[in-house]
Amino acid sequence: MTSKPLGQPSKAARRSTAGKVSLNRALSKLGFCSRKQAELLIAKGRVRVGGKVARDPALWVDPERESITVDGERI
Fold first, then answer.
1. Per residue in 1-55, pLDDT tens?
2. pTM score of the predicted model
3. Are the beta carbons of 70 and 63 closer than 8 angstroms?
4. Domains (range + CATH), the chain
5. Rounded alpha-carbon distances, angstroms, from residue 61 to 5, 6, 16, 34, 65
6. Are the C-beta atoms of residues 64 and 18 closer than 8 Å to each other?
7. How far apart are CA 52 and CA 56, in angstroms?
8. How far apart are CA 8 and CA 47, in angstroms?
């Protein structure tokens, strides 16, 4: 039986995070605001992912597949 090298994520782990970034980074990469500004918006409950309020700036999201809104406007 072969095993993966130490420190390497499994194939399932790589698939589950493929294309995903933290929510604050997604807002920054989409040109909406800086990461720091995104953290403040998230803390105030103004950001939703998939219709649900997101409270964690480190939440992993796929900006190409998931609906991200700020104050009701889609980003």
1. 556 566 655 665 555 567 899 999 999 999 999 999 999 999 999 999 999 999 9
2. 0.75
3. no
4. 19-74 (3.10.290.10)
5. 27, 26, 10, 17, 8
6. no
7. 12
8. 33
